């Protein structure tokens, strides 16, 4: 994504070390999770046709055909296919949430 | 609706990451300018991705939602300082200005992308110079590796410093060889050198020239990243073909092929990352409660705190006929 590309560029340019980049990514994961938990309150429903499912290492992967998301604002979003990657809801996230 | 909140959230994340990582940068002895550069790069990439309307809510005058082409992106830089720490963005260049001529060009408003890209290259180039000075008398290994090296002169990290010694060493060896008759002991090392030299002289002669005309002559940054990357980049276009060729006999079952195709196609672009609270199935009805996720669909990002998913699944669904 945008961050990793930027980090790549900086690593390539010698401005930062890969180790530092990893720290940044770790921080990003943490910050993203925190921020989402704190600031995002919206609810969404999703319906669709389940094409593929798998559970591996506590990570669910679904491939849903013709998903339709119904946002809180009654906004509908459709797509031909979507992949859902869901990690187990970790304690840390859960703790922050409740 | 959940798309509207995306910019604010992303900003918050960026700010938090940058803020939280600052001590790490200090610990690693990396200057604040680099951190600012990272932030600037990151933000501009996020904005350029158009995942959401990045009209900053706080300062309305600033940053009109960037149009899909580059120049607006560039124009949006000036407004940014008002809301973010973008002033820093200028700092790296200011620092560079002491050494490198290009920064003024950037300030004069050269077309956005090239200007932005050229400068960092310059900085690397200089960095590379510093690094490479010590290894000049480098070992033959470097020369032996020469053929594998991309001819890009962009001096960068230590990796590229391999390239530098090579360049300098090759000409020197080329010059010295005729000068003295090589004792038999030396012949072996020389033969190892000789191979690279077939390619080398042209390469090195190019690069001998290139140091003086710096960034402008460089390919776009992506063309000359650190050494491993070009190597990785080269096979990339082929890799799908290769991997298919290799795998087809062994482990590609029919269904797997389909799935690969499915996932590799549209599925890659539309994706949801989230956590799950529970996933339950009754017969072919699946219900799952997803939490704290981001949906990337149709080029837009959406965030949700909770998402109830209901899917039905037919066992035959993997057969394309049922699509």
Describe the protein's architecture and organization.
The complex is a heterodimer of chains A (98) and B (323). Chain A is α+β, with helices and mostly antiparallel strands and 98 residues long. Chain A has two domains: 2-39; 45-88, TATA box binding Protein, subunit D, domain 2 (Roll), CATH 2.30.18.10. Chain A is built from three helices and four strands; from the N terminus they run ααββββα. Chain A has helices spanning 2-12, 18-39, 91-97; strands spanning 43-56, 59-70, 76-78, 81-88. In chain A, strands 1, 2, 3 and 4 form a four-stranded antiparallel sheet that branches. In chain A, a hairpin with a 2-residue loop joins strand 1 and strand 2 (59-70). The radius of gyration of chain A is 17 Å and the shape is elongated. Chain B is mainly α. Chain B folds into three domains: 6-98, no CATH class; 128-229, no CATH class; 267-323, Transcription factor IIA (TFIIA), beta-barrel domain (TATA box binding Protein, subunit D, domain 2, Roll), CATH 2.30.18.10. Chain B is built from 14 helices and three strands. Chain B has a three-stranded antiparallel sheet with strand order 1-2-3. In chain B, strand 1 (271-282) and strand 2 (285-297) form a beta hairpin. In chain B, helix 1 (6-27) runs antiparallel to helix 2 (32-49). The longest helix of chain B is centred in the middle third of the chain and has 26 residues, at 184-209. At the A-B interface, helix 1, helix 2, strand 1, strand 2 and strand 4 of A face helix 1, helix 2, helix 7, helix 13 and helix 14 of B. Chain A: TFIIA is a component of the transcription machinery of RNA polymerase II and plays an important role in transcriptional activation. TFIIA in a complex with TBP mediates transcriptional activity. Chain A: It comes from Candolleomyces aberdarensis. Chain A: Residues 1-36 form the Transcription initiation factor IIA gamma subunit N-terminal domain.
């Amino acid at each position: 994504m945008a961050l990793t590309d930027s980090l790549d560029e900086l690593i390539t340019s010698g401005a930062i070390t890969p180790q530092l980049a990893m720290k940044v990514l770790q921080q990003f994961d943490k910050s993203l999770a925190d921020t989402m938990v704190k600031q995002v309150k919206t609810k969404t429903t999703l319906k669709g046709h389940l094409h593929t499912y798998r559970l591996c290492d506590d990570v669910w992967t679904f491939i849903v055909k013709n998903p339709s998301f119904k946002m809180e604002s009654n906004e509908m979003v459709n797509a031909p296919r979507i992949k859902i990657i869901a990690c187990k809801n970790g304690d840390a996230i859960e703790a922050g949430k409740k | 609706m959940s798309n509207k909140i995306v910019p604010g959230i992303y900003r918050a994340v960026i700010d938090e990451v940058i803020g939280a990582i600052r001590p790490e940068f200090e610990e690693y002895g990396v200057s604040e300018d680099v951190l600012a550069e990272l932030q600037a790069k990151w933000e501009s990439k996020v904005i350029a991705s158009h995942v959401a309307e990045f009209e900053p809510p706080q300062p309305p005058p600033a940053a009109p939602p960037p149009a899909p082409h580059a120049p607006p992106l560039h124009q949006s830089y000036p407004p940014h300082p008002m809301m973010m720490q973008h002033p820093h963005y200028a700092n790296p260049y200011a620092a560079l200005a002491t050494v490198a001529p290009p920064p003024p060009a950037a300030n004069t408003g050269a077309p956005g992308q090239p200007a932005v890209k050229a400068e960092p290259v310059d900085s690397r180039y200089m960095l590379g110079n510093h690094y490479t000075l010590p290894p000049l008398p480098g070992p033959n290994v470097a020369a032996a590796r020469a053929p594998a090296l991309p001819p890009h002169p962009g001096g960068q990290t230590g990796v590229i410093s391999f390239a530098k010694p090579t360049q300098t060493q090759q000409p020197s060896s080329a010059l010295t060889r005729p000068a003295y008759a090589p004792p038999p002991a030396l012949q072996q090392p020389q033969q190892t050198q000789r191979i690279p030299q077939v390619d080398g002289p042209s390469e090195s002669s190019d690069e001998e020239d290139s140091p003086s005309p710096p960034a402008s002559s460089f390919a776009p940054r992506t063309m000359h990243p650190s050494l491993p990357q070009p190597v990785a980049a080269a096979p990339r276009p082929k890799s799908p073909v290769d991997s298919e060729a290799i795998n087809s006999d062994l482990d590609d079952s029919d269904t797997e092929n389909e799935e690969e195709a499915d996932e590799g196609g549209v599925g890659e672009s539309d994706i949801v990352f989230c956590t799950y609270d529970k996933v339950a199935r009754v017969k072919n009805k699946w219900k799952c409660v997803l939490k704290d996720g981001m949906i990337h669909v149709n080029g837009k990002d959406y965030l949700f705190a909770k998402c109830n998913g209901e899917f039905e699944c037919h066992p035959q669904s993997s057969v394309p006929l049922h699509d």
